[in-house]
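Subject: design request, 367 residues
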């Protein structure tokens, strides 16, 4: 009795001579997936051209499956790959952020079939990208970090995952955040407070209004939770104990300690020769308000480098955005924070297609 490979060879010989059965009938007879049949025929004849079903599959998946994987799936030669390009069917390039995003999604969703849960950062690492021939994605992540110094302290795997699945994960979930991120004299404590609020309020789902009654309990946060999210060692760069960290994050009488009225904050700006009576974004003079670049509730202070005068419209936009998170991630001098905020804020307006260019003056105009 003939084996499967011999039957395929005989059937393919008949087809080349103008006879034989259709490919899908042969596949059904041999109980083979159609693509597997085509792949085996190419083992016999490497020049066997791409079939319509294969081309259709490649068109549908060309933006999410890496080129090397498509080549492997269909046992394609370089000339067959070139024939796709000649037809205008371009596969994912092996450079650029799009390649990194698509191959990261392919690896997680198709190959590893991982859920986007808190276990994912523990299951995926840079070595997996190397094992699945996706080293180019890692190089792209390194390039992004080189072009964006605020990303330097984070592991490159976070850069890849965050671009593929924005705002789902925090950098410390992936281990290996560089110690200088937490040691920073100006932002280290604020970053740790932000991380603790994330753990308590988002992961443990404890409402902020209940925290004053709970924060003194021994199991308010546990070592197991801190270790799981790689935060226990990080906290030791700034705090002598977990309780000190908790008290810094959730202080007593916070409103009384931190709030200063608008008049006092305007005087601070005026004394520092800063704009105090018009919007620093658009120079509109009516209905101006003082904005805390890093919000008071996120560890911000009334320091002169943390406040800025904005019109009511831009103040509302600033409040809705998450620019303060980018400030926390950035490794910038305190003296440069205001200018950094202004640049980020303008980028945010452009990115969301805001119609604020109809407000007062164009956002780019300044004195």
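Subject: RE: design request

Done. Sequence follows.
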């Amino acid at each position: 009795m003939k084996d499967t490979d011999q039957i395929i060879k005989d059937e393919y010989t008949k087809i080349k001579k103008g006879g034989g059965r259709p490919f899908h009938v042969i596949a059904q007879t041999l109980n083979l997936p159609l693509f597997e049949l085509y792949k085996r025929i190419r083992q016999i004849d490497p020049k066997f051209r791409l079939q319509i079903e294969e081309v259709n599959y490649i068109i549908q998946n060309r933006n999410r499956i890496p080129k090397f994987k498509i080549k492997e799936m269909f046992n394609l030669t370089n000339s067959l790959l070139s024939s796709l390009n000649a037809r205008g069917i371009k596969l994912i390039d092996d450079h650029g952020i799009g390649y990194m995003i698509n191959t990261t999604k392919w690896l997680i969703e198709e190959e590893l079939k991982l859920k986007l849960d808190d276990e994912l950062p523990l299951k995926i690492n840079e070595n997996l990208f190397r094992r699945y021939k996706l080293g180019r994605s890692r190089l792209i992540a390194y390039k992004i970090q080189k072009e964006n110094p605020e990303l330097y302290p984070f592991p490159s795997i976070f850069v890849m995952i965050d671009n593929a699945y924005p705002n789902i994960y925090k950098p410390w979930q992936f281990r290996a955040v560089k110690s200088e991120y937490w040691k920073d004299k100006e932002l280290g404590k604020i970053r740790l407070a932000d991380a603790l609020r994330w753990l308590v309020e988002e992961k443990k789902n404890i409402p902020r209004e209940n925290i004053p009654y709970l924060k003194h309990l021994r199991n308010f946060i546990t070592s197991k939770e801190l270790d799981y999210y790689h935060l226990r060692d990080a906290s030791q760069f700034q705090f002598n104990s977990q309780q000190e960290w908790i008290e810094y994050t959730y202080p007593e009488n916070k409103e009384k300690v931190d709030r200063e009225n608008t008049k006092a904050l305007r005087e601070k700006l005026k004394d520092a020769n800063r704009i105090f009576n018009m919007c620093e974004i658009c120079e509109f003079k009516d209905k101006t308000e003082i904005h805390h670049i890093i919000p008071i509730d996120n560890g911000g202070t009334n320091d002169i480098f943390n406040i800025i005068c904005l019109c009511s419209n831009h103040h509302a936009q600033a409040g809705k955005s998450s620019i303060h998170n980018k400030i926390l991630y950035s490794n910038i001098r305190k003296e440069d924070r205001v200018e950094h905020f202004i640049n980020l804020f303008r980028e945010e307006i452009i990115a969301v297609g805001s119609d604020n260019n109809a407000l007062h003056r164009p956002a780019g105009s300044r004195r």
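The chain is about 55% helix and 5% strand.
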